DNA sequence: AAGTCGATATCGCCA
DNA sequence: TGGCGATGTCGACTT
């Protein structure tokens, strides 16, 4: 691997990082092309406009922005602020380049749904290439799955005598997180949330309870228990109005 | 502004982009510090481990990854795949550096909630600095707001004789998208979705209808109409079981 | 390919 | 600041 011949390069022989500063648009195109071909992360910093059309559509006038092109087709346009890119395209896209009339366009396209993102550079200050290498996958703890495990290993956390019968039990309204029985043999539906919940979680639990009462042809009430660290005031009111219950638990037991 | 003295720099005098290749960890620390001070976007590419602790927690063993530090405190750790960063921190964080024992740690911290993200580099291949400049804010079309405007300008799209009375009408269960009256003076609650909807949207509409029937002390049924391009099978079944209605509309009228 | 739901969701608005 | 709901949500898993 040799350093590129363009002026301004700072690549040394054996580094997984390369950068070309102040390239002509033609030199930039070559460098981007090579990076895409080589399966590296490509970054482009320059003055550009951005057009998006697909599930929605948007248009962004010229400004200095930072573009990332991942080997998996992911495309991210970042500005100085915000966690989310100002425009983007998900993994699986095809990257194509188009030079014309003193501009260089990077286009990311996908189908199902049909979507096109076009970043048109009037000027490019730097192109970078990076050989990412990540043998590990991230494991997160403190999730809803952890909360479920915690309850299954100690059902009395819900209440004394609670017996889990199934997880992910299917109903016409979706899968119930934990389906079980209380000390008086009443059916209990448990909906889990890893964090403080609002009205949406109450509605979800209510859906399961209603559908199960229909399905089981039972005159006895099916109990619905929402398990979360806490609830908002409006959610609490909705719980009361619907005859649903709440148990305060968090995924780790540390809070 | 002068080019940094570190070997391998490719910065020219008057560019909004700088890069330092193969810096020592000390030189990298200086460059990152200067970039943070100067309010530029800072990128760091190197071999690192990542630790996160806050709303959840995670740990990532060493690998080559791409770090972005935005002037607003946003912190993004990107790998070769995926649209979302493997680890991150939202805007408003404080960036601090910590050198020790042959490593350089970049730490992003916030409060409410208390969260810490630590990226520890064993090796750094490149540090970049970029002066982003974006005078424009993005406007997206094809949103739920567009769908609302379309209906308000032509209420008969819902049905002949439909009269909107209010938008964002408050109820104890939240704000109703469009609150109105039909040709027979029955109250109508309209819930808008910009795209194909599942069971959650049906539950949301059901919540509003139920609460309004209570609030209005009316024996007459409050009609609930879900407006979206289409519904999933399970959502359709739930609509039928709850006596709710569906009108097919999209935000643009082009689909 | 589509449905369903969780997420360190993020983001914007409003009380 | 917290509550609330939209999002071009994304992503994982199941059918």
Describe the structure.
- 2 copies of one chain form a homodimer.
- The radius of gyration of chain A is 27 Å and the shape is elongated.
- With 255 residues, chain A is of the alpha+beta class.
- Chain A contains 4 helices and 14 strands.
- The two termini of chain A are 53 Å apart.
- Chain B binds a DNA duplex (15 and 15 nucleotides) through strand 5, helix 3 and helix 4.
Give the tags.
five-stranded mixed β-sheet; eight-stranded antiparallel β-sheet; homodimer; 255 residues; disordered N terminus; 14 strands; 4 helices; alpha+beta; DNA-binding
Query: Biggest interface in this structure?
Result: A-B, 75 and 74 residues
Q: Residue share in helices of chain A?
A: 10-25%
Separate helix tally of chain A: 4
Question: How far apart lie the N and C ends of chain A?
Answer: 53 Å
Shape of chain A: elongated
**Total number of strands of chain A:** 14
Poorly predicted sequence stretches spanning 5 or more consecutive residues of chain A: 1-12
| Quaternary class | homodimer
Structural class of chain A: alpha+beta
Mean pLDDT of chain A: 94
Q: How much of the residues of chain A is beta strand, in percent? A: 35-45%
Radius of gyration of chain A: 27 Å
Task: Describe how the helices and strands are arranged.
Two copies of one chain form a homodimer.
Chain A: E1 17-21, H1 25-38, E2 41-53, E3 57-69, E4 75-78, E5 87-89, E6 94-100, E7 103-110, E8 115-130, E9 139-141, H2 144-153, E10 163-171, E11 174-181, E12 187-192, H3 199-216, E13 223-228, H4 233-241, E14 245-248
Parallel strand pairs in A: 12-13, 13-14
Antiparallel strand pairs in A: 1-8, 2-3, 2-8, 3-4, 4-5, 6-7, 7-8, 10-11, 11-12
Chain B binds a DNA duplex (15 and 15 nucleotides) through residues 52-58, 82-84, 87-90, 112-113, 115, 117, 140, 142-145, 174-175, 193-196, 198-200, 204, 232-235.
